[in-house]
Specification:
heterodimer; A: 421 residues; alpha+beta; Gyrase A, domain 2; Alpha-Beta Plaits; 3 domains; six-stranded antiparallel β-barrel; 12 helices; 29% strand; B: 248 residues; six-stranded mixed sheet; disordered N terminus
């Protein structure tokens, strides 16, 4: 009624002239419990969640997980990793255990690359696609014994991948295979940077030398007396070790690592720094840089698809895709003006004389790189344009046209020397 | 030679010379409560929140909630898992969603080929070792996985426990439908949980077992649902008393 009076006053009408709104019941009945009951919003917490909060981390939602976005200054966190050492909580990663003699055959079918010959103690990166050749997920898989494999998935992908594999196991590919979700049994931390080996060496008797523990290997070892799985892998392009420990010991292991890293000025780092670090290496994030139409060929990952394998998920689609050719390509770019960071999702346009501006692509990831002191990113472009390293194109940004250039390969340490030391 | 598959990392856990104390998913909550924590079978758990007598009274007269995440949890998987467990542990015939008490362990059948073993804290090591030895000697394809570290376990005890669970889950918790030793996987407060009925000295008691990361959320959700029955937190001391009474 007050609103009607106010409207009448504003229009210089009477209340009668203004009239009243028609009262209608809700279109759907609403249970009283919905209105009065508690708001249940599940949130998944890492075993060291309280440590992050106590250290002033800015927390962010990633799926249902609460993760540290940063601890105050992502730029410093990036530089700590590049120059010294950093530590990130990656407990949210999916972790699946596959056991049985049939596992190599299953992996050959569900990944697009080869697995049967993976030796004990080795780790391999893999990409999973569906029947249409669309990228579903990526991660690594480690061979711990003849018949014991340990697979990692993206944090948001684990439930879907678990169901995906279960579906195939129950559809005739399950002979001699058991699948178990260990995501929460193990917590995982990535210690990364040139000093990471020196820090970890203080806590374990495991041989961490490059010869004894080469890149893309896995070892079982105690860290401060806690039995862990160590994988020499990483997303940052630096010397890195992923430490998987039973979750009940997670706080103890994390604090031990932080304490051991003090003399090297270790910094914890969050999701934001990790995104910058991976972008400097031009690593994709499935779901951010890819979508429901992205296949490995258009995502510039044709190197991973092994078409000489017997049948695998996506192979038929890839036969068609390779015959017809892809229309778009996921590539890196840098900006003509190095300080301008285009927003993720920005449109890439083409303007030909006498024609309307046409959208030809879009930006999927972009950040200012503190290491390279320039804006970098990933984007989808028409294949002919994306295939030319250094080719210029235009990004539509806040009503202006900004020039950018195609960049092939990693922006930082393109030979990968830093992670192989 | 049969296949035995268990994560090496867990296998070697028993060989730790001086293991640190393990923390349950609710540890940070306990710290906020400023409750006295004790070591119980290698885990840090709350001793008493208020007084042991008050906590016992709540469990016996109304309803109480306890963190029992330190209970051992083992998954046994395999087409012949039932016959394997029958031979090794003497498991009687159990149907899906039902369980049996065998020695110190409760064994529940979740699927034709998947069993869940619940043990008292620390006992999982011995049972696991027995199963390991047996699988190595058999020709059956059985996978045994210790998932203790990955699951939270919250126990709701007392005459009003059924009502609380009914507020958060669509299952019928009446004893005629959900008797003692029943185990069902269901949606519970928007999450996936395994709910087990494990009565103690005639008191209705339910264990809610799920992802460790959701433990704190679930704990607060159950407490809020139990407000109208004045739900009380109970510590290890009261739990020990109840269990002692149960074993007499």
């Amino acid at each position: 009624m007050n609103a009607i009076h106010l409207c009448a006053l504003a229009n210089n009408w009477t209340v009668q002239e203004t009239g009243k709104t028609t009262a209608r019941p809700p279109t759907e009945p609403v249970a009283l419990g919905t209105l009065a009951g508690q708001k249940m919003e599940p949130a998944q917490l890492s075993p060291i969640h309280s440590w992050h909060v106590n250290r002033g981390a800015q927390m962010m939602l990633a799926g249902l997980w609460l993760r540290p976005e940063h601890y105050g200054n992502p730029r410093d966190e990036v530089l700590a990793v590049r120059e010294r050492v950093g530590l990130i909580d990656v407990s949210t990663l999916g972790k699946l255990q596959l056991t049985g003699s049939g596992v190599p055959d299953l992996l050959e079918r569900i990944y697009v690359n080869q697995w049967r010959k993976l030796r004990l103690g080795k780790v391999r990166y893999g990409v999973m696609c569906n029947d249409e050749g669309i990228i579903l997920d990526d991660g690594v898989c480690a061979r711990l014994s003849d018949e014991l494999w340990y697979m990692s998935t993206t944090s948001s992908g684990v439930t879907g991948i678990f169901e995906w594999i279960q579906w195939w196991l129950q559809s005739g590919w399950g002979s001699g295979i058991h699948l178990t979700d260990l995501t929460e049994v193990f917590s995982a931390f990535n210690i990364t940077g040139p000093k990471s080996r020196e820090v970890l060496r203080k806590l374990t008797s495991c041989n961490l030398d490059s010869e004894g523990f080469p890149y893309m290997s896995v070892r079982t070892a105690e860290v401060m007396g806690v039995p862990c799985r160590l994988m020499r892998i990483g997303f940052t392009g630096e010397l890195s070790y992923e430490i998987h420990c039973p979750s009940g010991y997670a706080m103890y292991v994390w604090e031990s690592l932080m304490q051991a890293g003090e003399e090297f000025d270790i910094l914890p780092f969050g999701v934001e720094a990790q995104r910058i670090l991976r972008l400097e290496k031009a690593h994709i994030i499935v779901g951010q840089d890819t979508d429901a139409l992205s296949d490995p060929f258009s995502a510039n990952m044709d190197w991973i698809v092994k078409m000489n394998k017997p049948d695998f998920l996506g192979k038929r689609a890839f036969t068609r895709i390779t015959a017809e050719g892809t229309k778009q390509l996921l590539v890196g770019f840098n900006m003509d003006c190095p300080d301008i960071v285009p927003e993720e999702g920005s449109q890439i346009v083409s303007k030909k004389p006498g024609k309307k501006m046409e959208i030809i692509g879009w930006v999927t990831s972009s950040r200012f790189s503190p290491t390279l002191t320039q804006a970098i990113g990933l984007c989808w472009l028409p294949k002919d344009l994306g295939a030319q390293n250094g080719a210029p194109f235009t990004i539509y940004l806040n009503g202006k046209l900004e020039k950018a250039y195609v960049h092939h390969g990693p922006f930082y340490d393109s030979a990968g020397a830093r992670q192989h030391v | 030679m049969g296949l035995f598959t268990i994560p090496q990392v867990l296998d070697s856990m028993s060989k730790m010379s001086n293991p640190p104390i393990k923390l349950t998913p609710l540890h940070s909550f306990f710290q906020q409560c400023n409750v006295q924590l004790i070591e119980h079978q290698g885990w840090k758990t709350p001793q008493v929140y208020t007084t042991r007598e008050a906590e016992l009274e709540a469990a016996q007269q109304r309803v109480a909630i306890a963190d029992v995440s330190s209970n051992g949890k083992i998954m046994v998987q395999g087409d012949r898992a039932h016959s394997f467990l029958a031979v090794v542990l003497g498991l009687p015939v159990v149907s899906i969603n039902a369980g049996a008490l065998v020695m110190d362990a409760r064994i529940y059948r979740l699927r034709n080929d998947i069993f869940f073993i619940s043990t008292l804290p620390g006992k999982e090591e011995i049972i696991k070792e027995n199963l390991v030895t047996a699988t190595q000697e058999s020709d059956q394809f059985i996978t045994i996985t210790d998932v203790t570290h990955g699951r939270s376990e919250i126990m709701v005890i007392g005459p009003n426990s059924q009502e609380i669970l009914s507020k958060l889950c669509g299952l019928d918790f009446h004893p005629s439908v959900f008797p003692n030793m029943a185990a069902k996987q269901s949606s519970f407060a928007k999450t996936t949980q395994l709910i087990i009925r494990r009565d103690i000295v005639g008191l209705a008691a339910f264990s809610i077992i799920g992802a460790r990361s959701l433990g704190e959320y679930l704990w607060h959700t159950v407490i809020e649902a139990g407000c109208e029955w004045d739900i009380m937190l109970i510590g290890q001391s009261a739990l020990n008393t109840l269990q002692e009474q149960s074993s007499k």
